[in-house]
Each structure stands twice: as structure tokens, then as C-alpha cells.
Design goal:
Mean pLDDT: 88
Helix content: 10-25%
Shape: globular
CATH topology of the largest domain: paralog of FGE (formylglycine-generating enzyme)
Strand order of the largest sheet: 10-9-11-14-21-15
Number of helices: 8
Number of domains: 2
CATH superfamily of the largest domain: paralog of FGE (formylglycine-generating enzyme)
Low-confidence stretches: 1-9
CATH class of the largest domain: Alpha Beta
Structural class: alpha+beta
């Protein structure tokens, strides 16, 4: 691609009337390459406002239009000066023009309508020195049982912008007689659009470890024998007492190859916020029209063939046992399988809901909690019948319908003997914005 001459830059702001865009400019990087830096200033917005950025271009006298789809960093903006860098070469390889006109639009960031995705290329496999990271505002295109790149050689994570107060422990707001309590999250985070699949785990480690091993279907089935030492290394999970990650662990290598220093499992609070997807206290996802999905539309559970599988054979097809990820409807945030299929590991040491709330109340901890990360391991162990276990959420393919809810929480051992592990635990990656 030769030098792009930017003749004019247009701007608009779809937001509150007071929000303005000014100082807009676009320049191809020198020495001439595939990247276009777009600078602008958002005025009249509150300091904590967040905006989704859309960049479009036209050429040939305005007759030809181009939508920016690939960015070097997240296409989001805050009040004040901003820059986004368009990877023009990725979207328009071989493009040549000398009359490119660029337009910028910002809209208030809303999780249900504003989509920003982090895409991690893991196609290089376990021996790669780098896993390239890009950003896009275009959702992944996939077919439920197909081996699409977004579920095999790439990892797609959706940006979540937490707002307001949320609840943990029950679907009802905090009140006397229930175990719920309020919390807030002050950092945006990215969380996997899909549960981590067996093919993705193979790309990261070179190993196939799951029990549902039918080679016809395993690539896009979720990893189902997850527990912390697989990701953190032997004895590596010590959250929240010690957040150090071994450089030689799967997670340590993943951080080094992506440059994402906060990549991890989600905290339970992050998982809960993302899973609820604006469900407003309902036990299941809401449809776009505000009605509630039936359980069979959104989850693989005991009522739709999950319980019929004998995981020890490993050879069941995709209609038994775990489902290929993305086989059911997503929640309002575009996240799949947040209910059913496999339980998902969270970072927090497990404490029963009643004991957890009582601990905070007894110790005069103020509600809402801010960025809760779970209790120290020793405290959690003492409150959990002297057992050290990890929190798992989301339920699994063999879970009965009464427990397949957005609020159900339980625990699991940190590891199992090799011949006795259950095949119902997986995970999805999370990256916190700091």
C-alpha cells in the first residue's frame, strides 16, 4: 500500500447533546506502512465516560466506502484527547488511493449494543514466540459445529464495561433473609466469547486432555478437565493471597506471548456480571424483546442429552455430553454457554453464600464491595468446613434444570487423581483493563 493522502476528516458524535468531537486528524504512519493513526478530542463528556469509536473512509470522489474493522488497540475513547490506529492493510490489502476521506463517530459504550472484541491469534501453536493481538468492532462469524478460526486458532474476547451495582449470592437484591450482597466493578474487562475449546488448548500446549475425545467433534468442544494447576502450573494457584504467575506455566507463557499482563481466569464478580448480561435478576438470559429464553434454547444440560453420555468412553457425538461451543443462543452481551455445557473456573476460593455474606457483615465491610476478589485462602477454607476449594459457575452438561440458573454457585477441588476426575469443568480467559 502506498502513501494515503487524507484530504479531509469528518467527525460526528452520537451521544448527549453536549458531547463534541474536535481536533480530528488522520495520518498514515511514516515510514509509509499499513497503519493509519486517527486522533481526535472528545469534549463535553464526564471524566468517566466511555465511547465506542467507529471509523469509516471513502474514496473515488466519495463513491466508494470502507468500514474500519481491524485496530491495533481497542477502538474506545474517553473524555479528552484520543488516538486509535486503524490497521488499514489488514482490512484493505494492496489498496492505493490519493483521495481518502476519513470519518469518525463516537457513541456511548453500552455492553449490549457496542461491541469491541480482542482477537488473539494462537495459530502459531505451543512453540510460537508471539501471539498477535488485534481489536475489532465486528462480532465473530461462526457455525455451531464448524471448526471456525474463532473457536480453534483464535481466541475472541468481548469488552465488558461495568456500570452500576450488581448482586452476588442470589437473584434478589440484598435483604434480610437472603444471602445476596451488592458489588461494583471499576475496571473494564475482556472475557471469552466462547468457553475455551479443546483445539485452543492444543494450540497453547500441544496436548489433548479432555475426556470427550471423539476426533470428529473435539476441536470445538470445550476443554472439560480443567483445574487450576493445568493453567497456573503445579501449586501455582494461590489467589488472592499471591497473584504471581509462573513464567513457565501455560498462563505465564500466554501472558508473555500476548503482552497481556492481566490475562487470567475471571474473578467470580467479573463472571457474574458478564453472565447476567443485563438479565436484571432473572435466572436465565433475556431475549432482545425482554422475554426470557427457555432453558433448552440457551444451555446444554441434563434435559437435552447431556446426562446420557458416558464420559469415560470419550467417543460420544456432538449431540451427547458437551456441545460444540456456540451451539445455543448467546446472552445479551453476545457471550455463549454462560449457562450449561461445562462449569467454569473462577479465581475466587469458594465460600458458601451464607458464610460469605456473614463474613462481610460481621467484619463491617461496606457494601457495595468494590472489585471483590474473594477471601484469603485460609479464611475461605475455615468458612468452607475446612476444605480448600475453588469457585465454579455456569453449571454443566449433566446439571439438572433446577440448578441451571445465573445465580447458582458451587465449588470443586483444585485437582483430582488422574483416574477419578470429572469431565465437567472448563474455563474462559479474562483480561482486566487497568
Amino acid at each position: 500500500m502506498k502513501n494515503i493522502t487524507v484530504i479531509i476528516v469528518l467527525c460526528s458524535a452520537v451521544a448527549a447533546n453536549a458531547v463534541t468531537l474536535s481536533g480530528v486528524s488522520a495520518h498514515q504512519r511514516w515510514p509509509w506502512n499499513n497503519f493509519v493513526d486517527v486522533d481526535f478530542t472528545v469534549g463535553g463528556a464526564a471524566a468517566d465516560s466511555l465511547f465506542k469509536v467507529d471509523v469509516k473512509a471513502s474514496y473515488a470522489g466519495g463513491d466508494r466506502l470502507i468500514d474500519a474493522k481491524t485496530y491495533l488497540e481497542a477502538p474506545v475513547a474517553t473524555a479528552g484527547a484520543n488516538r486509535v490506529t486503524w490497521d488499514f492493510g489488514a482490512d484493505c490489502p494492496g489498496f492505493k488511493a490519493d483521495d481518502l476521506r476519513v470519518a469518525v463517530t463516537v457513541t456511548p459504550y453500552d455492553n449490549a449494543s457496542a461491541s469491541v472484541y480482542m482477537v488473539i491469534d494462537i495459530s502459531g501453536g505451543k512453540d510460537a514466540t508471539k501471539y498477535p493481538v488485534r481489536y475489532t468492532t465486528t462480532a465473530p462469524v461462526h457455525t455451531p459445529k464448524a471448526e471456525d478460526a474463532c473457536k480453534t486458532t483464535q481466541l475472541w474476547l468481548k469488552r465488558i464495561h461495568p456500570t452500576g451495582t450488581w448482586y452476588m449470592g442470589a437473584k434478589a437484591a440484598p435483604a434480610d433473609g437472603n444471602n445476596s450482597f451488592s458489588y461494583t466493578l471499576t475496571h473494564d474487562f475482556y472475557i471469552g466469547v466462547f468457553e475455551t475449546t479443546q483445539q485452543q488448548w492444543y494450540q497453547l500446549t500441544g496436548n489433548w486432555i479432555s475426556d470427550f475425545s471423539n476426533e470428529t467433534w473435539r476441536a470445538t468442544r470445550p476443554i472439560d478437565t480443567s483445574w487450576p494447576y493445568r493453567l497456573f502450573g503445579t501449586n501455582g494457584w494461590k489467589w488472592p493471597d499471591d497473584k504471581t504467575v509462573s513464567a513457565t506455566s501455560v498462563l505465564g507463557k500466554f501472558r508473555a506471548r500476548t503482552g497481556l499482563s492481566t490475562a487470567n481466569l475471571p474473578t467470580e464478580a467479573q463472571w457474574q456480571y458478564a453472565a447476567d448480561g443485563g438479565a436484571k435478576g432473572n435466572s436465565r438470559y433475556l431475549k432482545p424483546d425482554g422475554t426470557v429464553y427457555s432453558l433448552g434454547e440457551i444451555a446444554r444440560y441434563s434435559g437435552n442429552a447431556g446426562a446420557s453420555a458416558d464420559y469415560k468412553t470419550g467417543l460420544v457425538d456432538a449431540d451427547s455430553g458437551t456441545a460444540c461451543v456456540g451451539s445455543y443462543a448467546p446472552n445479551a452481551y453476545g457471550l455463549y454457554d454462560m449457562l450449561g455445557n461445562v462449569y467454569e473456573d473462577c479465581l475466587d476460593p469458594y465460600v458458601p453464600a451464607a458464610e460469605l455474606k456473614n463474613y462481610y457483615v460481621t467484619n463491617n465491610v461496606a457494601f457495595p464491595l468494590v472489585n471483590p476478589e474473594g477471601l484469603p485462602i485460609a479464611v475461605a477454607k475455615a468458612l468452607n468446613n475446612n476444605a480448600s476449594r475453588i469457585t465454579i459457575r455456569g453449571t454443566g452438561y449433566s446439571t439438572s434444570s433446577s440448578n441451571v440458573t445465573l445465580q447458582y454457585r458451587t465449588s470443586a477441588y483444585l485437582a483430582y487423581a488422574s483416574d477419578s476426575h470429572p469431565s465437567y469443568r472448563g474455563f474462559r480467559f479474562c483480561v482486566t483493563c487497568e
